């Protein structure tokens, strides 16, 4: 998986298996970086549209990741709230680890560790 900077407003995440999804990265504030992936492009096995929302937040001096699935009907859940047997439909552990690296590389110049 890799992050691809494009000439348009939205960049891409190349999943490396022929799948590429638009993504949008932004800072919510000085302590919260976000990356949204696949808005308008992803559907689950029940044809429910969703996108992947990732954050890298600082809480009391400690940086941590958040990975959520945001559904079109405004339902949101942490990837870890999805039963383990169904989680890979949205994000595998390998993909989560790769996204951690991409997120860190996108915001490392602006964070104070």
TrEMBL record:
Q: What is this protein called?
A: Uncharacterized protein
Superkingdom of the source species? Bacteria
| Taxonomic lineage of the native organism | Bacteria, Bacillati, Bacillota, Clostridia, Lachnospirales
